Fold each of these.
Amino acid sequence: MNLDKAKKRIAKQVKKGFHGYPLVSLEYFGKTPDSASEVVISFTEEEGAEPQKQTFVSGGDAREDETIQSTLVKIIERADAKTVAEVDGISTLNVS
């Protein structure tokens, strides 16, 4: 799947808003607010359940990594997520 198609599919799911569980959420992290070096995808099966998390790391910007974005789409589809949420922007990694 090409990068633009993957990004559009994720954005379309996010725009739908909350429709119940299972819920998949995405949060991008980086050393600066301009480039995301990693993305954490969380899967929550039902309300009150502990989320399962998986992290993907990119040498460049994870938002522009075709492999990562295509993998996120596949995870969302396989999880049969009713809701997909995305944290706005890039959360800054605290590097000591």
Amino acid sequence: MRPSFSRRLLGAVLLCLAGPALALDSDRQQPIYIDADHVELDEAKGINTYTGAVVVVQGSMQINSDKLVIYTEKRKPTRYVATGKPARYKQQPKPDEGDVVATANEMEYTVADKKLYLRGNAHVTRQGDVFQGDQLVYDTVRDVVTGSGGPGGRIRMIIQPQEREGAKATP
């Protein structure tokens, strides 16, 4: 029996993004590299601001943005905000899967609730499936994506067909 479209759609939505909860285990053990044209570290306020072609790499995770602000409390990050035209996030969720790619004008990751907020022309691509809207939110703990199309807008999803069992892949 073939799964219904709504069941496939739900499965695709639930699996559409990779966040820290689904990232490669080895990523969290890797050092974080940050390259930027300019940096301002304000320890008193707990705000670290990187500007100009910002690149962040930790294992398979990479963020590219025009500006990245890291908010900290007692020197521990609490929130990351990346902005750009667009800002770009890429990470491999599992060793046998391709990268998840997310783009938006603004991306915010909150450490406490482990959510990734994508605002302004938000796009997420995973295994060929594409999710677009004005705003997308990914709850990495519950594996749930929610979104809105913005004022008068809609959410657009492109779900790739499932390969039929027993069908041979064509070269």
